[in-house]
Amino acid sequence: MQVFKFGGASVKDAAGVKNLAAIVQNYKENELLVVVSAMGKMTNALERLTFAYINQRADVQNIFAGIRAFHEDILSELFEPAHSVFNEVENTFVEIEWMIEEEPHDDPDFIYDQIVSIGELVSSRIITSYLNSAGVKSRWLDVRSYIQTDNTYREGLVDWEKTCASIRQDIPVLLQKEVVVTQGFLGGTSENFTTTLGREGSDYTAAIFASCLNAASVTIWKDVAGVFNADPKRFQNIVKFDQLSYAEAMEMAYYGASIIHPKTIKPLQNAQIELFVKPFLTPLESGTVINGEELQVKTPVIIVKTNQVLFSVSSKDHSFITENHLSEIYKILAELHFKVNLTQNSALSFSFCVDFVTSKFERLLQRLKPDFNFKYNTETDLITVRHYQTALLQELAAGKTILLEQLSCNTAQMLIKAES
Ligand code: ASP
Ligand code: MG
């Protein structure tokens, strides 16, 4: 069997859904599980809705109306008005409607997952119905009954044992009869609440299913021709990789290449399942294959992680920064689920760089305050170059303010002031 994952960009409008159906048509003789993301930028819109609701802002209903209208436009382009999908989608929205009529009392991360998950629930409804109307027999599957997580909302930790057991029990039989369409990015707790797996987590969902079902391959359909040595939207003169090793792809994802979610590769590597990254607009192109073949990469790989914040922390009593201080700082970062992207220490200070996440930034400041003095710089970008050459580093740094720089034999990193 194979797993396909379609991201938001591939299903951003009615034409995208039709294109997805055309791709699936060509594979439907094989057993196929399709994982879909929310359509277009709907996850961002649902995030805005969540924060507007939590802060009880006046624009809540407006944002919600916009999200509904976006889906209704797509629905009416794809289906006759009497089609049952209109009701299915409406029922999903009604749950949010009820929720936002009440005042928010629950934990914000919990609320976030209950609202933001609607994007995938709705897109998968629309896509399943469209596949069926296009003659591809398909079944909608509620992923929350299969991917079991703990209750770390916004960053659900997958219980692999339970998850694989339930996937293996039900899905193979279904796949023999029809294409199974399910939601990326979502999970369910043992109390049947919805969790999410972290932004851009649909790739990870595809990898979980593939790994549990021992799939022949996973294909991620993208709006680019494959994996490049730098973001095509940011750099010119870039090259596409025809093949990459799991290890190289994992490094790229780790440093922030947005092409693949970082948690995706490891389960595929463990089960030796090939991962294809292919263009959804020209599906016959070969794209990039990621597998266990170790090829020496000579091309420099440039990864830009924007929206970073650099902290410089010192102890309140001006003593040396010791391992005790470091472990205290790391404990705080771990509890708040910050991923540390770069660190450097000197005698009196410890510098670290993390993603700037508005919703928990204030909490981080509050937690550091009692024991540490600190300064921070927002609006910084972290540039990582694997297999670097000095000339390229100079070119990338030209005219930029470098706040921190680190070189190892294979990887160079610089944190620069973002261009305004
Ligand atoms: N829709 C979710 C997001 O945008 C998950 C995904 O696209 O992978 O983060
Ligand atoms: Mg998305």
Short description:
This protein is an alpha/beta fold. The protein contains 13 helices and 18 strands. Strand 11 and strand 12 form a beta hairpin.
Provide mean pLDDT, rounded: 96
Q: How many structural domains in the coordinates?
A: 2
Instruction: Give me the CATH fold name of the largest domain.
Output: Carbamate kinase
The CATH class label of the largest domain is Alpha Beta
The radius of gyration over CA amounts to 23 Å
Report helical residue fraction: 25-40%
Describe this structure in words.
The structure is a single chain. The chain has helices at residues 14-25, 42-54, 60-78, 85-101, 108-116, 118-133, 160-177, 202-213, 246-254, 265-270, 323-335, 358-368, 390-397; strands at residues 2-6, 32-36, 138-141, 179-183, 186-188, 194-196, 217-222, 227-228, 240-241, 243-245, 274-279, 288-291, 301-315, 340-345, 350-355, 372-386, 402-407, 411-417. The chain has two domains: 2-215, Acetylglutamate kinase-like (Carbamate kinase); 301-417, VC0802-like (2-Layer Sandwich), CATH 3.30.2130. With 420 residues, it is α/β, with parallel strands linked by helices. It is globular and about 70 Å long. Helix 7 (160-177) packs across helix 8 (202-213). Bound molecules: aspartic acid (ASP) and magnesium ion. Aspartic acid binds next to loops.
